[in-house]
Each structure stands twice: as C-alpha cells, then as structure tokens.
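A.,

Following up on our hallway conversation. Structure tokens first:
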C-alpha cells in the first residue's frame, strides 16, 4: 500500500517536537527524514505537479490542457490499486488535480463538504471519511491513499483548541506566525491519529507512508521580507518536510543532503513498482535512496520560475528579465552565470516535448 499525507503550506522548519510532535516522533523512530527537502514550487499548483509528475513547472500547462495523468498514477491504476483520494480544499482550484494527476480517476471526490466549513473542520471530516473508506475497501487489494490537509495554509484551528502558541513579538507577522504554528500543531494531531489508526488496523507493516507538503510558508524571515507563499523562491517557501516510512528499511534515519519533490516519482516507480526504465525517461529527479544531492533544480510559481543552486537563486520573469539573489534572497551585486547550468535547464525544459 501507499499512503501520501500532504499538509498544505507546512514548511520544513515546522517539523519539530514543539509544533509537530507526532510527525517528528514518527520521523525519529519509524521513518526516514530528509531534512533538506525542496518542493518544485512555492505554490500548491507547481508543488503538487512536481510531487506527482517529477517534472518542472514549464510542463504544467501542457499536461493540464491535455488532461494527461502522471506516470505514477497510471501505474497505480494499471496495477488495480484502490484509490482513496481525499482533499480538504477542492481538487480543482488552485491545484487542478482533477485535470492533471487525477484526470483519469472515475468518480473523483473533488471537495470536502460542506465547502463553507473552516479548514480545521474540513480536515476532521476528511479524516473521518478516510477511516470509513478503509473500513469498506477490499482487503485483498492494495490501496493508494492521498490525504491533503488545509488547516496550516488557512491558519485554521478550532476556537477552543487548547494548544495556542503565543506570538514572540507584537507585530502582525509574529501574530500570523503564532496562529500558523498553532494550526500546524492541530493538523499534526490529526496526522498522528491517522498513523495510529494505520497501525491498529495492522497495515503499517505493509504500507509505504510519505508525509510532506506542497510548499512552505514565510513570515518575513528572508532579507526580502516576504510573506506566505508564492511570493518568492526562498527556503521558507520551498523547503518542506519529507518523512518516508518504508517497510523493510530502517527507520529513525535522517539525511541532510539536498533532495526534492522531483525525486518522489522515480523512487516510487523503481522501489515500489520495480520499474527498470531509467528515471531520465519520465522525470527529472532521481531515486531518493541514491542519496545524491541535486546540483541545481528548477522551482516554479504561478507565472515564473527560478533556478536554484547551492549558492544562489536566479529568478526569471515572463518579460525576459531576471535577477540573481543569494540564499538569504538579497540581490547579488556579483551574479555568477554558469553556462553549463543554464544549458542543462534549457534541455530539461524541452526534453519531454515532441514535435
């Protein structure tokens, strides 16, 4: 089985004993923790596209317009996996999963109802429906579960939630950060329940569990003083948790090399489905278990993209302009242009198009 839990907007630094104690404990005891993991986007649409396709953002429009599913979902369906797909927010906006990764899924559950409920309540409803789906599934067939939680992104918590974090300052950003951390703590509690339920059903030993986010969230920490997500290609907006529990592999292991969402499809195709094709044939990432850091990668937003390197970020714009920033997102007075990287980016952005 495969269970993918995605917490919308959960930044990598939120994975700690204070804000996410259940996921942190799971990572420390039962899973593999990739602690320097980047999404392929600073927004839900591109983050999810990189997660499900292993492809950079320049391909999203074509896949969406053609309603072309991902290789990973195609493989799951060809192997007759039962699909339990649950999203707190809608599948169709802004992520457009109904026209991309899940385009070929019949009777797709496109929202959690009532849609007017706050995020925290929809997250609870989603989870209860997931439990019901597990009760009714055919036990002799493998399943793919997808749980997409909204509370952290919408900073939504029950009004009587007992673990409210206090702001560390009196600014608006500090107040927003405190509410966000409280929402992360709330959804972490739900994820902890899901993991416990999986174990109680006797499914933990036969289920690959992946816990991550579509992108991160920023509260003015970078030099550019940016907020939320989709506003820049900073670590705060791009680095997400990547916690992977794999039956038969040792848990309680952590790695700090640069990994990315682009690595997920190759890992699952090779390790779960024994795909013999090289990852180069269908994705731009590599198998996570090769433990190789990326030398550069492309991350996208809704209208532009950036080339990330270990020492700088080159941000491009549709009008042809660009800027080069350091890792704290300051404009570099001495930008470095690496021709081999730019050539490789151009090749990657064209590789999967055909005449």
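Then the amino acids I'd put at each of the 355 positions:
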């Amino acid at each position: 089985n495969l269970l993918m839990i995605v917490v919308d907007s959960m930044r990598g630094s939120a994975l700690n004993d204070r804000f996410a104690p259940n996921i942190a404990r799971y990572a420390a005891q039962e899973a593999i923790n990739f602690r320097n993991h980047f999404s392929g986007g600073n927004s839900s649409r591109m983050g999810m596209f990189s997660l499900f396709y292993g492809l950079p953002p320049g391909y999203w429009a074509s896949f969406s317009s053609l309603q072309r599913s991902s290789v990973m979902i195609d493989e799951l369906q060809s192997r007759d996996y039962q699909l339990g797909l649950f999203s707190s927010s809608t599948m169709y906006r802004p992520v457009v999963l109904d026209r991309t990764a899940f385009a070929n899924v019949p009777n797709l559950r496109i929202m959690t109802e009532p849609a007017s409920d706050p995020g925290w309540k929809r997250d609870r409803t989603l989870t209860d429906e997931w439990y019901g789906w597990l009760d009714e599934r055919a036990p002799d067939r493998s399943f793919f579960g997808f749980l997409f939680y909204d509370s952290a992104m919408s900073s939504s918590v029950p009004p009587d939630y007992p673990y409210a974090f206090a702001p560390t300052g009196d600014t608006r950003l500090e107040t927003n950060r405190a509410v966000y951390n409280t929402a992360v703590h709330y959804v972490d509690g739900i994820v902890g329940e899901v993991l416990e339920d999986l174990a109680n059903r006797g499914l933990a030993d036969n289920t690959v569990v992946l816990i991550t986010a579509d992108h991160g969230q920023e509260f003015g920490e970078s030099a550019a003083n940016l907020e939320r997500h989709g506003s820049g290609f900073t670590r705060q907006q791009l680095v997400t948790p990547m916690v992977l529990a794999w039956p038969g592999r040792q848990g309680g292991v952590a790695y700090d090399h640069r990994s990315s969402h682009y690595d997920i499809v190759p890992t699952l195709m090779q390790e779960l489905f024994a795909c013999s094709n090289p990852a180069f044939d269908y994705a731009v990432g590599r198998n996570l278990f090769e433990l190789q850091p990326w030398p550069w990668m492309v991350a996208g937003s809704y209208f532009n993209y950036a080339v990330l390197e270990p020492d700088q970020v080159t941000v491009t714009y549709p009008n042809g302009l660009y800027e080069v920033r350091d890792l704290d997102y300051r404009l570099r007075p001495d930008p470095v242009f690496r021709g081999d990287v730019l050539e490789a980016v151009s090749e990657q952005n064209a590789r999967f198009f055909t005449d």
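The chain has a mean pLDDT of 95. Curious whether your intuition agrees with the design.

B.
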